[in-house]
Amino acid sequence: MTSKRYSARTLDANALKSFAHPLRLRIYELLDEHGPSTATRLAALLGQNTGATSYHLRELARHGMIEVVAGMGRGKEKYWRITPGGYSYGDQPVDPEAAGALEFLLDDLIRQRSAELARWREVADRAPAEWYQVSGFARRSLRLTPEEAGRMRDEVLEVLERYRAVSDGRAESVGPEDVAGSAADAEGSAQAPGGAEGRVAADDRRDAETAQAGGAGDSVARGVRPGSLGEAGGATGGAGSVPSAVELERSGETAVGHVIVHFDVLPIGAVQEG
């Protein structure tokens, strides 16, 4: 069954290999969480020098992941943002190096999702009431054919695509004053993805030099305060590397926040046990 594409771009082999870098992933995360920022501000948040962050920003831009925000910044100062429209990894690469990069990216995606879920469990009781009430955890265990599973996936992604278009439209109007506050909130908590610190240090030293030169049942929980459900493994803490999942901005009387939506279709039962 052919998968529909719901992103503006599909990463090719070169883009996969470039993106599979711990510091670039962290830079992309920060821009995604907090909106446009500069190489200088990102360097301060990440404990890097400006030459290193400038180099990695240019690499991300070279593959269409981020772009310069027109009209922001003074003089030669550049503000960078996530390129609207999103991206997808596409099919399994034939090139072994690109395939290894994809494995790295998928592992980091799992890390990021786990950290975001744990972080929300930690901070949900401090969220404003209107945000707490629209939050939710959901899991479904279904028995479907491949065709039904594909149709369900596409229908959900079509809904998400509509709301991404709304979100991308708002991103066009973000100003420097909005960025300054949210980036400051992240200071002190910006670290490289878990388990990759050694690679970050080695890769960044080199890059800085280059730059300067099935079946467990269903569950749904909407607006549930932490502690009011049975704890399963104590999924709290350990998420200090990810800034708060909700960064509030105010536009008139309407609250606009950074909302994370996780969605997976996992046909685990179709895999034969080893």
TrEMBL record:
Highest rank taxon of the organism: Bacteria
Basic and acidic residues compositional bias, start-end: 200-209
Chain intervals for the UniProt region annotation (Disordered): 170-243
SUPFAM superfamilies named among the record's database cross-references: Winged helix' DNA-binding domain
CDD domains registered for this protein in UniProt: HTH_ARSR
Transmembrane intervals: none
Gene3D superfamilies documented for this protein: Winged helix-like DNA-binding domain superfamily/Winged helix DNA-binding domain (1.10.10.10)
Domain HTH arsR-type: 14-107
UniProt keyword terms in alphabetical order: DNA-binding, Transcription, Transcription regulation
Comp. bias intervals (Gly residues): 230-240
Protein name: ArsR/SmtB family transcription factor
Species, as recorded: Nonomuraea salmonea
